[in-house]
Amino acid sequence: MALLLLIEHRLSGAISARKGSVFLANESEMAWLDVHAQELQWAHSFCRFTMYHYITPDVLVDLFAGQPPAGQQPDVIDITEPLPLDEGIEVIGISFAGLRFVVFFADVLVYALGDPDWLEETADEWANGFRPAADSRLVKFMRADADADTMFDPEAWPLPHPRLIWQFCEVLARALSIHAQFFPHVPQYFYITQSSQLDLLYNRLGRRFDAGAYGPRFECVTRPNADTGGFYGFERR
User: Fold this and answer.
1) CATH no. for residue 136?
2) Contact of 159 with 115, CB cutoff 8 Å
């Protein structure tokens, strides 16, 4: 499990909000955290790691404007333009098989709360030491109705039919291509593997990106470790 997934899991299980402060549910397990000095930073970090907090009714209305409500017209496939949500964070909406998905693109340094040491530690442990370039994006997709318990669990939001996975792979790749066209300064994109099915999907994406099947060409520059997991990284050619 990647470092950010571990942190998200610990935070979601250990942090509770009470009167505007952050308290640890299990202080012995989390003794390494100085709550009094870092509570605001970690509360902010929790929102970053669980990007579903950006999915509000107003955002969904703006993102999917002009599209049929979820569940209607299941044959419609649509990909929106990127919608900026915060500094260095954009989202693209996907309508597919009657479902709505959101694809987040987060600047790696913004996602790390401006902490280059955290980036280096993550690169050493989960990207075989590969350092992301400035302005690179971490990509995370999920169902628009995901929550903190399901956003990192693909099994919680399967497609209506397993055979649709490769068609969805094409749609997901086109979403990245659209983002790359709107943000030509972004040199690299990183995906987190969370299951063997997603690993197969990202392998296929890598081959298609390398062939230029979606317009801009990307080369796979880092892959997950077979034992510890990690990231797929794609660099613009």
Assistant:
1) 3.40.630
2) no
